[in-house]
Design goal:
Layout (H helix, E strand, L loop, with lengths): L1 H9 L10 E2 L6 E2 L3 H8 L5 H4 L8 H5 L2 H4 L2 H7 L5
Antiparallel strand pairs: 1-2
């Protein structure tokens, strides 16, 4: 809730209701952070960023590999994804 309130205090997007809900049918409470992602994406003005088909995310998000995260040469090779 604190991060949601901090996000709203920045006033860089439309207001996003800070709420915690269930994660599908699992017993976990989550902030449904994709709402903040969509609010931020809607404010992007850069034509280059707008033209991206989908967000890439961080190295950890699309590799899911601790080996790559610790191997500098692999990270350098993968950096071309961000160009």
């Amino acid at each position: 809730m604190i991060l949601a309130e901090m996000h709203n205090d920045l006033a860089i997007t439309d207001y996003v209701e800070p709420k915690i809900t269930n994660f599908h049918d699992r017993p976990y409470k989550v902030p449904q952070s994709e709402r903040f992602y969509h609010a931020l994406v809607s404010k992007i003005q850069s034509p280059r960023l707008k033209s991206m088909e989908r967000p890439i995310g961080s190295l950890n998000q699309f590799t899911d590999s601790t080996d790559i995260s610790c191997w500098n040469r692999a990270q350098e090779s993968i950096s071309s994804v961000y160009e």
